[in-house]
Every structure is written in C-alpha cells, then in structure tokens.
Amino acid sequence: MRMFPEIPLRDWVDTKETLHRFLQVVGKIRLTSAPRRNHFWNAPFHLCGYGITTRPMGLVDGNTVFTVDFDFVDHLLVARTVDGRTASFLLPGHSVSTFYREVLATLDGLGVHARIPDPRPSGLPDSHRLFVEDVEHAHYDPQAVHRYWRVLSEVGMVLEAFAADFSGKTSPVHHAWHAFDISVTRYGDRAVDQPRDAGPLVREAHSREAICFGFSFGDDGTFEEPAFYSRMVPERAGLADRPLPNGAGWFTTVEGRIAALPYADARRAPDPRSAVRAFYEAAYEAAAELLAWDRAALASPGGVTDPHHPTS
Predict the structure, then answer these.
(1) How far is Cα 185 from Cα 222, in angstroms, rounded to an integer?
(2) Helix, strand or coil, per DSSP, at residue 55
(3) 86 part of a folded domain
(4) Do both 173 and 292 map to the same domain?
(5) For residues 232 and 258, what is the distance between their CA atoms, to the nearest angstrom?
(6) DSSP single-letter state for residue 112
(7) Alpha carbon distance 76, 88 (integer Å)
(8) What Pfam family is a match for this entry (predicted)?
(9) Which of 62, 64, 139, 232 could form a disulfide with 14 if both were Cys (CB 3.0 to 4.6 A apart)?
C-alpha cells in the first residue's frame, strides 16, 4: 500500500475547521484535568488504534479517572471512567455548539464534571466566540476524517522511527489541538530566556533549546497546503544557508525560519517514507550543528543505546 493518501486542503477545509474546534473543546478539558508537564506535554492528544486519545486524566480536578477519545473509524466521541462506565455519541451532524453541549452532558452523565475556564477557540480567527455560540462550523465528512486519520497514523509512525534515533530529552509524538499538527521535539540542556510578553504558551514550550519536527495539514497561518516541517529555538544565523534535500526549502515566517517539504513532493518520491526521513535528518543536522549539540553523544540508532547490543 502506497503511503500518504492525497489530502488537499480544498477537499475538506470545512470539515477540518469544524474538527479542529471539536478537538479544542476536548483538549481544553484535558488541559485542566491532567497534571501539568514541562513544555505543556500534558495537553495534546496521542494516537491510538482507532483515533486519538486524551489518555487518562482526573483526580487533580476532583473527578474520577476518565478518558475522552475520538474514534475516527466509527466516528464517535467516547468517554470512559476508570470503573468501566462508558458513554458515546456520533460525531457527524454536530455544530461546534451542539458538540460542546453534548461533550459536557455526556461527561456529566458519567459523574465527571469537566471545566473549561476559557470556552473559546485558541489561535483561530473566531477566538472571540464562545464554543456554545458557534453554529457556523457544522461540517463533518466521515470519508475526509478517515483520510485525515490515515495520514496522522502514517506520519506518526515516521515520526516515531525518527524519534528513536535520539537519546536526549524528547517529547512524545503528539497531535496538538492548538495548531492541529503532529510533531516531536528534541531538546538541549541550555535554557532560552523568552521575554515575559511572549506569553505563557511560548515561554513554557520554548524554555530550552529545541528542534521540532512535524507535519501540518495546512491553513495554519504558515502553510497553505499540507507540509512536513522543522524549526529550531532559538534560531541561529546561517540556518537558511544549510542544504536540504530536493523539494524542500527554507521559508520565512513570523516565528522565524522554518524548513518545509511539501506533502505533495513527498508523495511523489519513489520511497515517501525515506524522503521524509532524509528531510528531517538534514534539518536536524543543520540546526544541531548551529546549536553546537554533540550529535554523536545524543545518537541512539534504531532506538539502541546498549553498547553490547549486536547491532551497536
């Protein structure tokens, strides 16, 4: 089976905008119902065998342990508690308003009293509008969502394999509900002094030297179409002079230079998986050298650090 199905933004933009806000509703519950982790690693979704999961949460918010999952095979929102109670509802047919109400009602029926201190979208054009007032976004094409889920799964496995080669501090591979992307980040030891007015999200996410690798579905303020990307924090002079594989390039954004490989170009490669890996490796080499990271010491080829392993 050829990797990476077509997913041009124009074919599902209305569904993507609705689904993005669905994820933000549940993501904001996760944000307040789970212990905080450095770099906000507590906040995003993780991939599972049928969709994405919040992972277990609760206790810190006074609730029992519970999860909320998106099932993109049967197109359900599924809530579960640690004592085995389960409740679900279909995703198609909802506006953001009705979805928001149904999520809270479903959890309430399980005895989970969720809180969303700021029940509005974050980082989106309608960030002024309450979820409960949004009847505009009400598109859900199951075929498009399943295609998105397949892309998430395939890109996720590429990122997992790439992440295995680094033995330093690294984030999980995760799907962010704020940016609607999937990524993994490698960190260095040196602190980065972010300005106070950068805001709490930036200050926490970028508090250490970091090189991020990910995939965007497009229409996020940076990419108009799906693309693989990499960025470094803090940016060093000369980054854009570093070579990247054919099809990839350096682009200037409001956040600085970013390396990008269009999804369409990766799909056309004889081996798409290898093309993406080569792109990530080139971007890592460029950034790590400028940050003076000891790449040899941080390497764990194939996820192995055992010096006596047969393949070491």
Answers:
(1) 18
(2) coil
(3) yes
(4) yes
(5) 8
(6) -
(7) 6
(8) DUF5996
(9) 139
pTM: 0.95
DSSP string, 253-296: ETTEEEEEEEHHHHHHSSSHHHHHHHHHHHHHHHHHHHTT--HH
* Separation of alpha carbons 286 and 274, rounded Å: 18
Indicate the residue type of 211. Answer: I
Residue indicated by tokens 């569904």: 15
Q: 149 lies in a domain?
A: no
Say how far apart CA 65 and CA 83 lie, in whole Å. 8
Which of 155, 174, 282 is CA-nearest to residue 228?
Answer: 155
- Within a domain: 215: yes
Q: How far apart, in Å, are the Cα atoms of 18 and each of 9, 100, 118, 143, 206? A: 13, 12, 18, 14, 29
**236 is written with which tokens?**
């060093």
Single residue among 100, 118, 133 that ends a domain in this structure: 133
Residue-range definition of the domain harbouring residue 202: 158-301
- Residue pLDDT, tens place only, 100-149: 999 999 999 999 999 999 999 999 999 999 999 999 999 999 999 999 99
Quote the CA–CA distance of 267 and 60 in Å, as a whole number. 44
Query: Distance between CA 232 and CA 259 in Å, rounded?
Result: 9
DSSP tag of 170: B
CB 113 within 8 A of CB 80: no
Q: What is the pLDDT of residues 40-73, one digit of tens each?
A: 899 999 999 999 999 999 999 999 999 999 999 9
Strands (E), 4-148: 46-47, 51-53, 66-71, 76-81, 86-90
